[in-house]
Design a protein that fits this description.
434 Repressor (Amino-terminal Domain), XRE family transcriptional regulator, 50% helix, Cro/C1-type_HTH, 2 strands, Lambda_DNA-bd_dom_sf
Length: 86
């Protein structure tokens, strides 16, 4: 697990891995589809605590479902992959 927040691009990639639509993701974390759309289209660093909480809930749900987020560093870009054994 990580204490970092996934970017909108990473959230979209994780949904793609699980073939999950925005409505379903919203239902999993208790927000509307419109909220998920807004989060996925906003590349700014979140400062609003509610937004941070929702993104963290998304991260936790995807990790629970077997998705591992890859955070960009000097040697790799960001992304999402399925954890081994899932």
């Amino acid at each position: 697990m990580s204490d970092k927040l996934p970017s909108p691009r990473m959230i979209r990639a994780a949904r793609g891995l699980l073939n999950m639509d925005q409505l379903t993701l919203g239902e999993h974390v208790g927000v509307s589809r419109r909220t998920i759309i807004r989060l996925e289209n906003d590349d700014t660093i979140p400062t609003n605590q509610r937004r941070i909480d929702v993104i963290d809930a998304i991260r936790l749900k995807f990790e629970e479902l077997g998705v591992r987020f890859i955070y960009a560093d000097r040697s790799t870009g960001e992304g999402a992959v399925m954890s081994r054994g899932k």
